[in-house]
Amino acid sequence: MKELRVTVAENVPIAKNVYKMRFLLPEKTEGLACGKFVNISVGDGAHLLRRPIAICGYDETSVTICYQLKGAGTRAMSEKKVGDTLSCVLPLGNGFVVEEQEKRIALIGGGVGIFPMLSVLREYAGLGKEFYSYIGFRNKDAVCMEEEFSALSQELHIVTDDGSFGDRGNAVSAFFAGIDAANPDVIFACGPTPMLRALKTELSARKVNIPCYVSLEERMGCGIGACLVCVCKRAGGKGNARVCKDGPVFAIGEVEI
Amino acid sequence: MANLKVNICGVELKNPVIAASGTFGFGKEFNEIYDIGVLGGVSTKGLTLEPRLGNPVPRIAEGYGVILNAVGLQNPGLDVFLEEDLDFLKSKNTAVIANVAGKTLDDYAGICARLDGKVDMVELNISCPNVKCGGMAFGIRPESVKEVTSVAKSALKRTPLIVKLSPNVESIAVNALAAQEGGADCVSLINTLTGMVIDIERRRPLIANNTGGVSGAGIKPIAVRMVYEVCRAVDIPVIGMGGITCAEDALEFIIAGAAAVQVGTANFTDTLAMPKIIEGLSRWLDAHGVKDINEMRGTLVLN
Ligand SMILES: Cc1cc2nc3c(=O)[nH]c(=O)nc-3n(C[C@H](O)[C@H](O)[C@H](O)COP(=O)(O)OP(=O)(O)OC[C@H]3O[C@@H](n4cnc5c(N)ncnc54)[C@H](O)[C@@H]3O)c2cc1C
Ligand SMILES: Cc1cc2nc3c(=O)[nH]c(=O)nc-3n(C[C@H](O)[C@H](O)[C@H](O)COP(=O)(O)O)c2cc1C
Ligand code: FES
Q1: pLDDT at A94
Q2: CA–CA gap between residue A64 and residue A79 (Å, rounded)
Q3: Total structural domains in chain A?
Q4: How much distance in Å is there from the Cα of B149 to the middle of ligand 2?
Q5: CB distance from A240 to chain B under 8 Å?
Q6: Does residue A115 sit in the same domain as residue A88?
Q7: Owning domain of residue B119
């Protein structure tokens, strides 16, 4: 991980209140991978904390992130123009890893949780894996990246909370409706806490024994593991884990959700 | 190049810039970004005798130009620090300051006794609630500041004692004097100011603990004023902190009388803040023809 001054190459809306930003790296950067995140400064003196955003895509010279406008920080980010520079610490945390023997992968993404799922698809495209993707949005205005998901997935199920695009429902119920047909070797998920909690509860209720990894969110201070601000509880009373350093990706049984 | 070395109660620091407790862990993570051996010193995350899990999350929120935190002293406990972290910090050739906390006078005595001779300095965080005193922090009343200081001091035969002062008090200068009377070798200030941020949609405080400690750029004028008042009140060295983000900020504290400074929240905004401050100090002194940073200390001229 390192701190770099990156240059905005693209910063455009891709759905209602969701922006895609691609920025250029000033130097070669080791360790970029799906499921890891960047901690980006919003570029003004008022906001002292960086914003943690998942890596959605990357190549040798640039990184792409997709972010939803939530508060003043993401709004300030959306005002950045091509050529503007921002301070960015990257790459951070542990990402998603598909093991050699895992051929069939289920991806479950809700809301902005779809972006790390897309990073998995992009990283493992063309490596002989089959992806079964279940992605959920609030409504049709929020739907984005569906074409890329469709192009890279064996099967894609899109659902919305209000049924205005795809089926009505959430990504977790869509996954359980398709679990037998997909028969995945491993499950990756990212989304709001209630979604991940529902996934955990349902997996254990159905006694599903497939390895499952989830990406968690928590408010952060340093973003690099030093301040103990971003903790979650390890399962079985084994103390706290740092979301920024020990995660954000955890085995679903390893942490309390 | 100007001299940046400073000496605080017999401990030589290669420069006056120290990482503030709680923002830097035990140094390992920041050392992945830069060599922390460039720092004057590192004050560790607050240590207690037993491991502590800290407060529920969220533990942090933002205000304009400030942040609030309520980590609640999560730390692995003294034993783990001694076994797993101390050797690493010592190997970096930077002054190691153990920041310690406790709930009772016995806690403070016990932890100081075990650290005596093992670190360069001990920094007493006295902002924690004193269980035997109805939960009021040791650091509030001057009498209890003096008492906890003298208890800690008698457990420290070889290692100098810094008492870290809380700004949430009637008079920080009076408390500084109480620490000096209790036997402190040095005082550091300021710890965080108590604050609150409310989520108006949920009508709840954003931080799980409801209140949190305010730190960062926005608190600097308050911190500078308090450091100025304390420097006038005591004879022992003073370490200043609160909102320092650049070399010019650090110089304000030094001109007000501080012998060294600590940098906390700025490490979050800019992971390279401290190396930049050290370089900036050197550049500023050279540009102004000042040969030694110690010549800047306490040179404040009042209007
Ligand atoms: C590992 C990780 C990956 C993430 N990836 C993405 C992503 O790819 N796309 C996306 O849109 N969002 C993502 N988020 C959430 C994103 O960090 C927040 O939406 C964003 O920080 C909000 O900033 P703001 O200034 O707009 O909101 P404000 O509410 O004004 O922010 C105030 C403070 O709270 C923090 N904060 C607020 N909401 C969250 C949250 N949900 N998680 C963590 N910190 C928060 C902010 O960082 C800031 O410090 C991710 C969060 C984490 C922890
Ligand atoms: C996340 C966080 C954790 C902290 N933990 C401690 C601590 O354990 N012990 C302590 O004495 N001070 C602690 N502090 C206070 C800082 O050391 C410092 O006094 C304060 O933040 C003011 O300096 P700053 O404005 O440069 O951050 C903490 C501050 C922050 C932001
Ligand atoms: S944000 Fe500092 S430890 Fe995770």
Answers
A1: 97
A2: 16
A3: 2
A4: 20
A5: yes
A6: no
A7: 6-54+74-194+211-296
Q: For tokens 């991980």, what's the residue?
A: A1
Measured between CB atoms, does B216 come within 8 Å of chain A?
yes
Does the beta carbon of A246 lie inside 6 Å of ligand 1?
no
Give pLDDT tens digits for A34-72.
999 999 999 888 999 999 999 999 999 999 999 999 999
Q: Which residues of B45-77 are buried (b: 16+ CB within 10 A; e: fewer)?
A: bbbbbeebebbebbbbbbbebbbbbbbbbbbbe
Over residues A94-117, the pLDDT tens digits come to 999 999 999 999 999 999 999 999
Q: B265 — contact with chain A (CB < 8 Å)?
A: yes
Position A202 in a domain = yes
Packing angle of the helix pair B247-256, B273-287 (nearest 10 deg): 70
- Mean pLDDT of all residues in A8-18: 97
Query: Which residues are bridge partners to B199 per DSSP?
Result: B204
Q: Annotated catalytic, B128? A: yes
Judgement on whether residues A18 and A82 belong to the same structural domain of the protein: yes
Q: What's residue B128's pLDDT?
A: 72
Q: Which of B128, B133, B186, B246 is catalytic?
A: B128
Q: What is the CATH number of the domain that holds B251?
A: 3.20.20.70
Single pTM value for the model: 0.97
Q: Which of A3, A50, A87 sits opposite B33 (nearest CB)?
A: A3
Reduced to 3 states (helix: H, G, I; strand: E, B; else coil), residue B42 is strand
> Could you give the C-alpha distances from A80 to A11, A54, A222, in angstroms and in order?
7, 18, 23
Cα–ligand 2 centroid distance for A89 (angstroms): 21
Judged on CB neighbours under 10 Å (0-12, 13-18, 19+), A27 is exposed
- How many domains are contained in chain B? 1
In this predicted model, what pLDDT tens digit does every residue of B26-66 receive, in sequence order? 999 999 999 999 999 999 999 999 999 999 999 999 999 99
**Measured between beta carbons, which residues in chain A are less than 8 angstroms from residue B67?**
48-49, 221
Within this chain, do residues A74 and A125 fall inside the same structural domain, yes or no?
no
Instruction: Identify the domain containing residue A23 by its residue range.
Output: 2-92
Non-local (6+) Cβ contacts of B106 within 8 A are none
Q: What is the ipTM of this complex?
A: 0.95
Q: Do A227 and B23 touch (CB under 8 A)?
A: yes
In a domain, B200, yes or no: no
Q: Which ligand is nearest to the CA of B264?
A: 2
**A235: closest CA of chain B, how far (Å):** 14
